[in-house]
Write a structure and sequence with these properties.
heterodimer, A: Rossmann fold, 2 domains, B: 352 residues, alpha+beta, MetI-like fold, 3 domains, 11% strand
Chain lengths: 372, 352
C-alpha cells in the first residue's frame, strides 16, 4: 500500500540542518506535490523517502512498514530523476528490464510488463533504440516507463519536467496526471514551479528553509494561505500587501485602516485581533476591482497578455509595488490615477510580526469555499 | 567547404589558393620526413629479417633480401656459387670452384670442363631475390620460440585482464564512494607513480621469493597488476559518469557489484580500452622484471628469449630481427582493434 508517514524527520549535512522536524502523512493513491524555492529541502526530502539519503532523526513508514533501514529497492518505490538517468549503453527495452532482472522476475513476466508500460506511454516504436537516439520528451517517457514496470507502491518524481521546453512541459504535465488517474498509485512530485503544483496536485506541501509551511489542496492553499510565505509563493503575480491598522472590530469582521480615508473590511475572527494592531492586508491582483472611490492607484506600466492585463503601479504617495489584474484589453496611461477596492471576502490579513494569517470568521470560510 | 570532400583537392590544397607558400613546403617536408623516420627502421627490420645471416652485415647494406645464387655442378660435391664473368670481352655465368688470391677458378655449369682461371676484378656475384624463411622457421621449431610466445601471450593476456579488473574496482571505490581517508588513499596511490621500478626491484624480488613465485609466470603477473596510472586514468573517467545513474540503479534493486559490472564498466569502456592498450604494451615489452624473476628456459617470455640469441661471442642478428618482427605483430593487432577507443577516450565521453 502506498501510504506514507514521516515522523519528526530531520536531516543535517554536518553542521548544516536542511530539514527540521518534518511531519507528514500521505494517503494511498494521492498525487502530492512538494513545492518551494530552491534550497528549501524538497529534493532532499524526496531522496530521503527514496532511501538515497539517510535521515539524522525521525521515522519513515511506507504502507505501515518502518523503512528507515531499508534500501531503495526494498521500500518498493520508483523514482524518475531530473536528468532521467537512463542507462546510456542499454536499449530502451533493457533500461526497462534492468530493475526487473535484478529482482529475478521471469523472462515472460518481464516482457509482458515492458509491453504494457510501452503501450501505456506510447514508446513501443523506440524499444530497441538507445537513449541518445531519443528526443527529450521520449526520454522522459522511458524514465517514467522504467518506474511503471516495477509496479511500485509510491512513485517519486524529482523535477521531471525541468529539461523540457514549454509546450512539451504542458503536454507531459497532462500525461502524468492522466497516468495517475489510470494507475491510481501514490505519486510524490517535486517542483519549484507553482503552476505544476497547482495543476497536478491533490495535495500540495509547501516547503521553505527545511520546514513545512502548509499542507493542503491547491485551492485551500490559494484561498487560505496560513502565512505570508505561502501567500507570496502561490499565485502569480504575487499577492499585494497593504500596511494598515485595525480600526474597528465588529460582529461580522474587522475594519482595517490602510490610509486614504477608505477603510477595508476583512471577514476575520474578531477574537483574534485587537484595536490598533498593525496588520498586513493581502489582496491578490485579480481580487482588486475598479471603483469610483477607494484606494488611489497610480498606474506605471502594464502587461497585456490578450485575454488579460496586469497593471503595475503604486498607491498614491507610496513606493511598494501594487499589481492589479483586468480581464481583456485594458490600457491605462502612465501616471493615470485609478481607484481600486478589494473584492468582498477576498482579503487576507496577516500579523507582520509572526507572519501568520489571522483566522477567518468561521461562516465566511465556508462561503469562500463555495466561491472557489 | 565542399572541396574538403574531394581527396585530391584535400591533399593538394595550399595555404593560399593558387600558390605554394613556404609553410606548405615545410609541412610536406615535415610530414614526409616524419613518416620516413618512423617507417624506415620498421621496414628495414622487416626486410632484414628475411635476409640470410651473411647478408645482414654486408657492406654496403642492401635494402631488399638478396642472396648469392648457388648451383650444383656435375663432378663437384658441394653446390658452387654463380658469378658473372667477363672473358675475352664476353659476359658469361660461371660457377666458382675455388679462389686463390686474385685469381679464381671457374667452370661453366652447363658444360663442366677443366676449370678456367679468371681475374677476380672481372667478376661479380650473381644475386637473386631470396627469402630466408628459415629465420622464422628455425627459432619456431628448433629453439623453443613457440614456448616463449605462449608464455608471453599468457602473461600479457592474464596481466591485462587482472589489471583492468583490479584498477577498475579501485577507481570505482575512489570515484563513487565517500569514505574517511578517500583523498589520502588516492594521493598515496598517485604518489607511487614517482617511484621507479629500479628502486623497488630488490624488495619486490624478495617478496616474490618470499611467496615462492620465483621462476613462475605468476611472479611476473601479480606484481604488475595494480598500477597507479590505471587507477588514476579510470578514476578520472568514472568521475564523469553522473551519480544519478548509480542512484537509479540502486532504486532498480541492483547490488553494488551489479552496478559496477553492468553500469560502470560498460560506460568506462573507452578508458578501459586505453588502459588495455597500455597494459598490453607494458607487459609484452617488459624485459627487466621477467629477466630477474624467470630462470628456466621453459618459463622465458619472448623478450627474455630474444636475449638468448645475443651470446657472449656472437649475435644471431637474423634470428633476433625475425623474432622481433614477429613480436611486433600482436601489439600491432591489439592497437588496430582498440585504436578507435583511444580517440574517443581522448575526445571525451559525449555522454548526455
Amino acid at each position: 500500500m502506498g501510504n506514507l508517514k514521516l515522523e519528526n524527520v530531520s536531516k543535517a549535512f554536518g553542521a548544516l540542518t536542511v530539514l527540521h522536524d518534518i511531519n507528514l502523512a500521505i494517503e494511498d493513491g494521492k498525487f502530492v506535490v512538494f513545492v518551494g524555492p530552491s534550497g528549501c529541502g524538497k529534493s532532499t526530502l524526496l531522496r530521503i523517502i527514496a532511501g538515497l539519503e539517510d535521515i539524522s532523526a525521525g521515522g519513515i513508514e511506507i504502507g505501515g512498514r518502518d523503512v528507515v533501514q531499508l534500501s531503495p529497492a526494498e521500500r518498493k518505490i520508483a523514482m524518475v530523476f531530473q536528468s532521467y538517468a537512463l542507462y546510456p549503453h542499454m536499449s530502451v527495452r533493457k533500461n526497462l528490464a534492468f530493475g526487473l532482472e535484478n529482482l529475478r522476475f521471469k523472462r515472460s513476466e518481464i516482457d509482458a510488463r515492458i509491453m504494457e508500460a510501452a503501450r501505456m506511454l506510447a514508446i513501443e516504436p523506440y524499444l530497441d533504440r538507445k537513449p541518445r537516439q531519443l528526443s527529450g520528451g521520449q526520454r522522459q517517457r522511458v524514465a517514467i516507463g522504467r518506474a511503471i514496470v516495477r509496479n511500485p507502491d509510491i512513485f517519486l518524481f524529482d523535477e521531471p519536467l525541468s529539461n523540457l521546453d514549454a509546450a512539451l512541459r504542458v503536454q507531459t504535465r497532462a500525461e502524468i496526471t492522466r497516468l495517475h488517474r489510470e494507475i491510481k498509485t501514490t505519486m510524490i512530485y517535486v517542483t519549484h514551479d507553482q503552476v505544476e503544483a497547482m495543476t497536478m496536485a491533490d495535495q500540495i506541501v509547501v516547503l521553505n528553509g527545511g520546514r513545512i509551511e502548509q499542507v493542503g489542496s491547491p485551492l485551500e492553499l490559494f484561498d487560505n494561505p496560513r502565512n505570508l510565505f505561502v501567500a507570496g509563493f502561490l499565485g502569480s503575480p504575487r499577492m499585494n500587501m497593504l500596511k494598515g491598522k485595525v480600526a474597528a472590530i465588529g460582529e461580522a469582521g474587522v475594519t482595517i485602516d490602510a490610509g486614504f480615508g477608505s477603510p477595508l473590511t476583512a471577514e476575520i475572527d474578531p477574537a483574534s485581533t485587537k484595536m490598533g494592531q498593525a496588520v498586513l492586508a493581502g489582496v491578490r491582483p485579480a481580487h482588486f476591482t475598479l471603483a469610483d472611490k477607494g484606494l488611489p492607484f497610480i498606474a506605471q506600466y502594464y502587461e497585456s497578455l490578450g485575454t488579460e492585463t496586469y497593471v503595475y503601479g503604486t498607491l498614491e504617495g507610496q513606493t511598494e509595488q501594487i499589481i492589479i489584474h483586468r480581464t481583456g484589453h485594458f490600457a491605462p496611461g502612465t501616471g493615470e490615477r485609478l481607484f481600486i477596492t478589494p473584492a468582498a471576502g477576498r482579503m487576507h490579513v496577516f500579523d507582520p510580526e509572526t507572519g501568520l494569517a489571522l483566522p477567518r470568521a468561521v461562516e465566511q470560510r465556508s462561503v469562500a469555499h463555495e466561491h472557489a | 567547404m565542399s572541396a574538403g570532400l574531394n581527396p585530391i583537392a584535400f591533399v593538394t590544397r595550399t595555404r593560399r589558393q593558387g600558390r605554394i607558400d613556404i609553410t606548405d613546403v615545410l609541412s610536406w617536408v615535415w610530414l614526409i620526413g616524419g613518416t620516413l623516420a618512423v617507417l624506415i627502421p620498421v621496414v628495414w627490420a622487416g626486410l632484414s629479417s628475411l635476409k640470410p645471416a651473411a647478408e645482414i652485415t654486408r657492406f654496403p647494406p642492401t635494402f631488399l633480401p638478396r642472396a648469392a645464387v648457388q648451383q650444383t655442378v656435375p663432378g663437384y660435391e658441394a653446390p658452387l656459387s654463380l658469378w658473372k664473368v667477363t672473358i675475352d670481352g664476353q659476359q658469361r655465368e660461371m660457377a666458382m670452384v675455388r679462389r686463390i688470391g686474385l685469381k679464381a677458378q671457374m667452370v661453366d655449369p652447363k658444360q663442366p670442363g677443366p676449370p678456367v682461371s679468371v681475374d677476380v676484378r672481372d667478376m661479380s656475384a650473381v644475386q637473386r631475390l631470396t627469402v630466408a624463411t628459415e629465420n622464422y622457421s628455425d627459432p619456431l621449431t628448433r629453439f623453443d620460440f613457440l614456448t616463449f610466445l605462449k608464455n608471453s601471450v599468457f602473461v600479457t593476456f592474464v596481466a591485462t585482464l587482472l589489471t583492468l579488473i583490479v584498477n577498475a574496482l579501485a577507481a570505482f571505490a575512489l570515484s563513487k564512494y565517500r569514505f574517511r581517508g578517500e583523498k589520502a588513499i588516492f594521493v598515496l596511490i598517485i604518489s607511487t607513480l614517482m617511484i621507479p621500478l629500479t628502486v623497488v626491484m630488490v624488495p619486490a624480488y624478495l617478496v616474490v621469493v618470499g611467496v615462492g613465485l620465483v621462476d613462475n609466470l605468476w611472479g611476473i603477473i601479480i606484481p604488475t597488476v595494480a598500477s597507479p596510472t590505471g587507477v588514476f586514468l579510470l578514476r578520472q573517467y568514472m568521475l564523469t559518469i553522473p551519480d544519478e545513474l548509480i542512484e537509479a540503479a540502486r532504486v532498480d534493486a541492483a547490488s553494488e557489484f551489479r552496478i559496477f559490472w553492468r553500469i560502470i564498466l560498460p560506460l568506462t569502456a573507452p578508458a578501459l580500452a586505453v588502459l588495455a592498450i597500455f597494459s598490453v604494451l607494458w607487459r609484452w615489452n617488459d624485459f627487466l622484471w621477467p629477466l630477474i624473476v624467470l630462470s628456466s628456459r621453459d618459463n622465458f617470455t619472448l623478450q627474455v628469449g630474444l636475449n638468448a640469441f645475443q651470446g657472449e661471442f656472437s649475435v644471431q642478428w637474423h634470428y633476433i630481427l625475425a623474432m622481433t618482427f614477429l613480436s611486433l605483430l600482436p601489439v600491432t593487432l591489439v592497437f588496430l582493434f582498440l585504436q578507435k577507443y583511444i580517440t574517443t577516450g581522448i575526445a571525451g565521453t559525449g555522454m548526455k
